[in-house]
Amino acid sequence: MSTRHSFLSTTGLIRSPSAVSTISTHASSGGTKPTKSEASVFKTKATRTEPLKALRTRAGIVPLGPTFLVVMALLFSLLFIASISFAFIGSEEGPDFKDVLDDVAQNNPGIVLVGENVDVDVDEPSITVRWSILGCGSAFVLKGSEGAHGSSSCGIPSMPLSIFVDANGENPTATYDPTNIPFLSKNGKRQSIQNLFQFDSDHVLDVHLTRLYPFDTYELTSTIHILDSNKNPVTLSRLPTITETPSFLVSPSDVASFMNSTSSDDATEQQGRNLVLKVVRPGEARAFALLLFAVNWMLAHATVAYTVLAWKTDDTERILKYLAFVAATMLLIPQLRNAMPDAPGFDGVLIGMCYLQLLLTHQHLTLTTNYNRQHRVLPTNAHERLLSHLHPRCNSSARAPHLRRCRGVC
C-alpha cells in the first residue's frame, strides 16, 4: 500500500514520518522511555545544529586582545632601541682637518697650530684651547712623522720653536724641541708624544651677554706668532680649530698679521696670525632650554589655578592639597632649571628671573586662603543657629537641602 505525501511534506516544510524514523525518540515496544542509542543520536544531532558564538565588536570593530597589544609594544620597543643604537655608528671619528692640512702643504707650507679642543667655561669665565704643533711641507716636517690627521704631507715640525700667544717678550707660551721625540725600534718612525707637541692656551672670555642665556654669544680674539731657535720669525700658515663642542658651536677664522719687535736695537716685523672665535649655543641646546623654560612657566601658572580653586572652596582638606601642590612646584622648578644645558646660576640671568617671586606670592595667597576659610566656620555656624530659631525646618538636625532653602529664604 503506497503512502500519500502531503504538499507540505513534499516541499520540505514538514518532514514525513519516514524521514524522521531514524532519529525518533519514541519509546521502544513495551517501555515508556527511549533507549540509550536513540537518545545519543538525538543529542548528537542537536549539538551539531547549535549556532556559532558571535564575535564581540565595538562599533563594528573587533577589539584587539591584551596579548597582541603587549607583543606589539615589545616589538616597537626593540625597534626604537635598535634605531637609537645607530647614533653610535661613526662616533669614534674625530674632526676632519685633512683637507685644510693638504691645502696648506700644497699652497702655503709652514707651521699649523690645530685647535683640537675648545673648552668654554662661562662660569670662570674663560676659553681654553688645546693646540697641536704641526708642520706641513717637506721643509717643515720631521722625517718619519708624516700622516698627522690623515695628511701624508704634514707631521711633527722638524725645527725647535718658541710660540707666543698674546705675548711679545722673552717668555714664550710654549716651546717645542724635535730632539725630544723618540724613535720606534721596530720601524724607526717617530712616536708622537702628545705632551711634547701639544700645549694649552687660556683666554679671558667677555661674558657681558651671559644674561641672554640660551641666546648668549661670545667672541674671542687672539694673536699668535712663532720664532725659531735663532729668534727669527717662522711662517704660521693656519689656525684651524674644532667647530663643535658638547655645549657650544665654534666658528673660527684667522688672518695673517705682523707686529714690530722691540727686543733688539733694530725693530723688525714678526709675522703671525690673528684668531677670531665666535661661540654660540647649538639649536638643539636652545630648544631644550626653551622647552624646560615653558614647562617651568606652565607649572607656575598651574599654581595660579590652584590658588583660585582654593579661594572658591570651603573644604579645608582640599585647600591643604592645593597647598602641597604649590610647595612641590616650588621644589621642582629649580631642579628643572638646573637641568638646562650648561645652566647658569640664579644671578641675574634673564631666563631664571621671576620664578621664585611668583611662586612665593602664590604660596602666600594659598596660606591666606586657608586661614580665611578656617575662620569663616564660626560665622557660618552662627548663621545656621539663627535660622533654626526663625524657621522650624532650619534646625541642627536638618539636612543640607533644607539648609539651602533656609538660606535662600533669608
Which CATH class of the domain at 98-281 is shown? Mainly Beta
> In the CATH hierarchy, what is the architecture of the domain at 98-281 at level 2?
Distorted Sandwich
- Compute the average pLDDT: 75
Largest sheet, strands/sense/barrel: 6 strands, antiparallel
Low-confidence stretches: 6-28, 377-383, 394-410
Measured distance between first and last alpha carbons: 102 Å
Helix run count:
10
| Subunit arrangement of the protein | single chain
Rg computed from alpha carbons, rounded to a whole number of angstroms? 45 Å
The SSE order reads: HHHHEEEEEHEEEEEEHHHHH
Annotation keywords:
410 residues, alpha+beta, Acetylcholine Binding Protein, Chain: A, five-stranded mixed beta sheet, 10 helices, disordered C terminus, transmembrane helix, membrane, DUF4436, transmembrane
What's a concise summary of this model?
This protein is 37% helix and 20% strand. It is of the alpha+beta class and 410 residues long.
Q: How would you characterize this protein structure?
A:
The chain has 410 residues and is α+β, with helices and mostly antiparallel strands. Among the domains are: 98-281, Acetylcholine Binding Protein, Chain: A (Distorted Sandwich); 284-375. The chain has helices spanning 7-11, 36-48, 66-85, 98-107, 194-197, 283-312, 316-338, 355-375, 377-390, 400-409, and strands spanning 110-121, 126-136, 154-155, 161-165, 174-176, 198-204, 217-228, 233-234, 236-238, 249-261, 268-280. Strands 4, 5, 7, 8, 10 and 11 form a 6-stranded antiparallel β-sheet that branches. Strands 1, 2, 3, 6 and 9 form a 5-stranded mixed β-sheet that branches. A hairpin with a 4-residue loop joins strand 1 and strand 2 (126-136). The longest helix is centred in the C-terminal third of the chain and has 30 residues, at 283-312. The termini are far apart.
